[in-house]
Specification:
Blueprint: E1 3-7, H1 11-22, E2 26-32, H2 37-42, E3 44-47, H3 53-62, E4 65-68, H4 90-96, H5 99-108, E5 116-119, H6 122-132, E6 136-140, E7 150-153, H7 156-161, E8 169-173, E9 179-187, E10 193-195, E11 200-204, E12 207-213, H8 220-236, E13 241-250, E14 253-260, H9 270-273, H10 278-286, E15 300-307, H11 314-319, E16 323-327, E17 337-345
Parallel strand pairs: 1-2, 1-4, 2-3
Antiparallel strand pairs: 5-8, 6-7, 6-8, 9-10, 9-11, 9-13, 11-12, 12-15, 13-14, 15-17, 16-17
The protein binds adenosine-5'-triphosphate and magnesium ion (2 copies).
Binding site for ATP: 99, 139, 144-150, 172-175, 180, 203, 257-258
GO molecular function: 5-(carboxyamino)imidazole ribonucleotide synthase activity
Pfam families: ATP-grasp (PF02222), PurK_C (PF17769), RS_preATP-grasp-like (PF22660)
């Protein structure tokens, strides 16, 4: 088939659409409300809500394969896509969109997680804080991103001042980590799994600031352990496409934070820094093509997000020939990911 459907229309969909176009595919974007940046740039826009089964049926009929760039798509209505394959599948989406389900799923496969407790009211929060201790982080079980829907809790007094949203929550003990990293893998329809080099990820206020490859020598062993978990997750889900798992590197080994059933911000460096980008390999995987080589082509790469007004500095970013500038064409808002810059380090550091 030659038409790819993408559920979601943010920058990830846009970059998937660009990779698909390079390989000769056309894309249809399914997005509720306003056309997002993906729809503006490279594809058709349906404008229907995610739970509109009739629109999903029409979308399925117009596409040869459907994928998602956003993990909060409601799962139940996706049966309306009919015979058109959904890659990766609805089960991966269902698990990755729920922090409780994903922690249980990963723990069953032998992965370590932060200590956690389900919270459904202020009495539960007190009990959770007593059992797990402070400091901790309270998160909505579903629908958070970029640190939204999270509250850091240092003391009981701070917890009392919170007005809890009327949604299922999860309280996690704060993990003391040396660094954060992600495992980014792609799995083909034939079960072939490939990994990109794991980036070290730095966050500020819950938002990814920078991803750098390679991780330190000291973290290499943790990456190897985390990759085994990544393979186990991908196989258990019979996964197709790019899958990302976020980890904390701790003294006791890698601790799983969360997963994204899709291409990931911490993999944007692969566009210039790897033989095949995460976007191209996702398209190859969902279309049943052979996967491309994931090898990093330079000694080191740094990807820095342009958040909010940082994107206004694009002219000075462009002035340095080492920079690869990506702007997503989004309307400026504080705290919004507007673009990113990738720098390739071409020479080995002096010993
Ligand atoms: P994303 O945009 O990655 O989907 P998110 O909103 O789902 O973000 P998390 O990944 O859960 O949020 O948390 C964002 C960041 O907050 C983490 O990368 C980490 O830096 C910090 N963090 C979250 N949970 C914990 C924890 N239990 N212990 C220590 N730090 C944490
Ligand atoms: Mg998340
Ligand atoms: Mg995260």
């Amino acid at each position: 088939g030659s038409t790819i459907g993408i559920l979601g229309s943010g920058q990830l969909g846009r970059m998937l659409g660009m990779a698909a176009a390079q390989l000769g595919y056309r894309c249809h974007i399914f997005a509720p409300g306003q056309p997002g940046v993906a729809a503006e740039t490279c594809a058709q826009f349906t404008g229907a809500a995610y739970h509109d089964r009739e629109a999903l049926a029409r979308f399925g009929a117009a596409c040869d394969v459907v994928t998602y760039e956003f993990e909060n798509v409601p799962v139940a209505p996706l049966t309306a896509l009919g015979d058109t394959p959904l890659r990766s599948n609805a089960r991966a989406l269902e698990i990755a969109q729920d922090r409780l389900m994903e922690k249980r799923f990963v723990a069953d496969l032998g992965g370590a997680t932060a200590p956690y407790a389900v919270v459904d009211g202020s009495a539960d929060l007190e009990a959770a804080m007593r059992r797990i201790g402070t400091p901790g982080i309270l998160k909505t079980q579903r629908e958070g991103y970029d640190g939204k829907g999270q509250w850091r809790i240092d003391t009981g007094a701070a917890a009392e001042r919170l007005s809890l949203p009327a949604k299922p929550l999860i309280y996690e003990g704060l993990v003391r980590f040396a660094a954060e990293f992600s495992v980014i893998l792609v799995r083909g329809t034939d079960g072939d799994i490939r990994f990109w080099d794991s980036p070290r990820n730095e966050h500020a206020d819950g938002i990814l600031v920078r991803s750098s490859v390679p991780v330190s020598y000291a973290m290499a062993g943790q990456v190897a352990t985390a990759r085994e978990l990544g393979s186990a997750v991908a196989q258990a889900l019979d996964y197709t496409g790019v899958l990302t798992l976020e980890f904390f590197a701790t003294d006791a080994g890698p601790v799983f934070n969360e997963m994204a059933p899709r291409v990931h911000n911490s993999g944007h460096w692969t566009i210039e820094g790897a033989r095949t980008s995460q976007f191209e390999n996702h398209i190859r995987a969902i279309c049943g093509l052979p996967l491309g080589d994931t090898t990093t082509i330079v000694p080191a790469v740094q990807m820095t997000n342009l958040v909010g007004e940082q994107a206004n500095a694009w002219a000075s970013v462009l002035a340095d020939p080492a920079n690869h500038l990506h702007l997503y064409g989004k309307t400026m808002r504080d705290g919004r990911k507007m673009g990113h810059v990738t720098r390739l380090v071409l020479e080995e550091p002096a010993a």
